[in-house]
Design goal:
The chain has about 260 residues and is an alpha+beta fold. The chain contains 6 helices and 10 strands; from the N terminus they run E-H-E-E-H-H-E-E-E-H-E-E-H-H-E-E. A hairpin with an 8-residue loop joins strand 2 and strand 3.
Length: about 260
């Protein structure tokens, strides 16, 4: 979703094989390296993830933030997983904890931010296999008690992109732990080349072609009625620091 409704969070996307499709959860930890120890930080993070977070629900991918106030920070993203699986993956382990405290934590700032995101499959498009590279993150601050109205907005957006750009891949995520930081919802665009960012914004035109002449102005009022605002970031996948390989498998969910 770009420009008009452009862009946290978060991958790889191989769904958990259980009864039917489950909406996966991702735990994202934002880490700030000590600027004088970035090489040590990256070396320790890479070794830790490849040893302890390379498979299953504990798989971790790492992203480097390339724009905005968080530029230069890293996203340590565990998933896809489930709340039930956290009982196992978050169980204290002396070897794991010692490795983190010895080889990662000393080279990072003490402050961090942890968020939990549920993949909204109804409003996502994982219609083909692809490999993570660049992520355009569009973060929405929803108004209180307006999630149903916001989901109705997403229904219309999904219709437009499924009709006009179905080969493009995107993910939709809701924050499982709401806060006052304006991080209630995230739309993620996955793209390979930076040239994608320079493509013309056809969303207003596409919207009226799908929903009818004059519909876009009404749509903007609907967006304004259920949101406070938005922000965006660019993330770059760092396979060298990740436990996972960034491969995303196609899936079909309700409405897709």
């Amino acid at each position: 979703m770009k420009r008009t409704l452009l862009i946290l969070l978060l991958a790889p996307w191989v769904l958990l094989a259980q009864e039917g499709l489950q909406e996966p959860v991702f735990m994202n930890v934002m880490l700030t390296p000590n600027p004088a120890k970035i090489s040590e930080f990256e070396a320790g993070l890479a070794a830790h993830n490849k040893k302890f977070h390379a498979e299953g629900s504990g798989t971790v991918n790492v992203f480097w933030i390339a724009s905005g106030k968080n530029s230069g920070k890293y996203i340590w993203s565990m998933g896809p997983t489930s709340w039930a699986a956290f009982d196992e993956t978050n169980t204290p382990d002396s070897e794991h904890t010692t490795d983190w405290n010895t080889n990662v934590a000393p080279y990072a700032e003490a402050t961090m931010e942890t968020t939990y995101w549920k993949n909204d499959l109804k409003h996502s498009n994982f219609s083909r296999d692809f490999t993570l590279k660049n992520l355009a993150i569009f973060i929405i601050d929803m108004k209180r008690f307006k999630q149903l109205e916001f989901e109705a907005v997403l229904d219309k957006v999904q219709e437009v992109y499924k009709a006009k750009d179905p080969d493009h891949q995107w993910g939709s995520y809701f924050n499982e732990m709401p806060n006052n930081e304006g991080q209630d919802y995230v739309w993620v665009d996955f793209f390979d080349s930076s040239a994608w960012m320079g493509k013309p914004d056809n969303f207003p035109q596409w919207f009226e072609e799908v929903h009818g002449e004059g519909s876009f102005a009404k749509f903007l009022k609907e967006v304004d009625a259920c949101t406070h605002g938005e922000s965006s970031e660019l993330w770059m996948f760092r396979e060298d620091l990740s436990g996972g390989d960034g491969n995303v498998q196609a899936l079909v969910a309700g409405g897709q």
